[in-house]
C-alpha cells in the first residue's frame, strides 16, 4: 500500500481536474471564450512529455555508466510514453488552434518546432528497431537520447521566443499567467500538470515492468 499512494493520488487529482476543467468557472475572454479550458489538458500534456523525456535521459546516462539492461529498458519506455503524450499535446493543440486561429496547423514557429522535435524522438525509436545487437543498440540510442533532449528544449522553448509566434509567451505575446488565467483556474491547472505527470510515470513504470517480465521469460 505504501507504493500505491501516489497512484491513488494521481487518479483523484486527474478526476478532480477533469471535472473542474469542464465545469469550473473561467474568465470571459475575446476569441478564446470557452476554449481556454483546453489549457487544463493541452499544456499538461507537454509538461508530462518533457518530464518523461528528462527521465529517459537520466536512465540513458545510468545505462552508459552501469551497462545494466534495466536502465536501457526504462529509458526507452519513458520515451515511448513521452511520445504518446506528445501526440496528445499535438492533437489537443490542433483542436484549439482550429477554433482560435482558424486552422489546425497555421504556419507558426512553435508548431513547426514541435513537429521537428516529435520526428526526432520517432527517429530514436526507429534507430532502436534498426539495430539488432542488444548492447550496440542500447549504447547508440542512449547517446542519441542524451543529445536529443537539449535540442528538443531549444526547439520548443527557446527558438520560438526569438521570433514572432501565435503562442502565448512568444514573439512579445503575454503568457496565459499574465492575462488570461485567474485565481479560479490556477489551482486546477497546476493540479492537472501534477496529475498527468504522475499518470505518465505510472504508465511508463507499467510498461517497464512488462518488458522486464518478457526478458525473464526469454531467459528461462
Report on this model:
The mean pLDDT is 87. The protein is globular. It contains seven helices and no strands. The chain has 220 residues and is an all-alpha fold. Helix 3 (69-100) runs antiparallel to helix 4 (109-130) and helix 3 (69-100) runs antiparallel to helix 7. The longest helix has 35 residues, at 185-219. It is 75% helix and 0% strand. It has helices at 5-23, 39-66, 69-100, 109-130, 134-158, 176-179, 185-219.
Compact description:
The chain has 220 residues and is mainly α. It is 75% helix and 0% strand. It has helices spanning 5-23, 39-66, 69-100, 109-130, 134-158, 176-179, 185-219.
| Number of alpha- plus pi-helical segments | 7
Q: Based on Cα principal axes, name the global outline.
A: globular
Largest sheet, strands/sense/barrel: none
Care to count the β-strands? Answer: 0
Specify Rg, calculated over alpha carbons: 19 Å
Order of helices and strands: HHHHHHH
What's the SSE blueprint?
Blueprint: H1 5-23, H2 39-66, H3 69-100, H4 109-130, H5 134-158, H6 176-179, H7 185-219
Properties at a glance:
mainly alpha, globular, 220 residues, 7 helices, 0% strand
Amino acid at each position: 500500500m505504501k507504493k500505491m499512494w501516489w497512484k491513488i493520488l494521481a487518479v483523484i487529482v486527474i478526476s478532480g481536474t477533469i471535472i473542474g476543467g469542464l465545469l469550473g468557472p473561467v474568465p470571459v475572454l475575446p476569441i478564446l471564450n470557452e476554449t481556454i479550458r483546453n489549457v487544463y489538458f493541452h499544456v499538461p500534456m507537454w509538461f508530462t512529455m518533457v518530464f518523461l523525456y528528462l527521465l529517459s535521459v537520466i536512465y540513458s546516462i545510468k545505462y552508459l555508466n552501469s551497462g545494466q539492461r534495466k536502465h536501457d529498458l526504462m529509458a526507452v519506455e519513458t520515451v515511448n510514453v513521452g511520445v504518446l503524450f506528445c501526440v496528445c499535446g499535438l492533437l489537443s493543440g490542433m483542436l484549439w488552434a482550429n477554433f482560435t486561429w482558424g486552422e489546425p496547423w497555421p504556419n507558426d514557429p512553435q508548431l513547426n518546432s514541435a513537429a521537428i522535435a516529435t520526428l526526432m524522438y520517432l527517429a530514436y525509436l526507429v534507430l532502436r528497431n534498426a539495430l539488432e545487437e542488444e548492447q550496440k543498440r542500447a549504447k547508440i540510442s542512449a547517446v542519441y537520447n542524451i543529445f536529443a533532449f537539449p535540442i528538443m528544449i531549444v526547439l520548443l522553448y527557446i527558438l520560438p521566443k526569438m521570433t514572432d509566434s501565435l503562442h502565448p509567451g512568444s514573439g512579445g505575446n503575454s503568457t496565459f499567467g499574465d492575462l488570461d488565467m485567474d485565481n479560479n483556474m490556477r489551482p486546477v491547472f497546476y493540479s492537472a500538470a501534477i496529475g498527468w505527470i504522475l499518470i505518465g510515470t505510472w504508465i511508463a513504470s507499467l510498461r517497464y515492468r512488462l518488458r522486464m517480465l518478457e526478458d525473464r521469460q526469454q531467459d528461462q
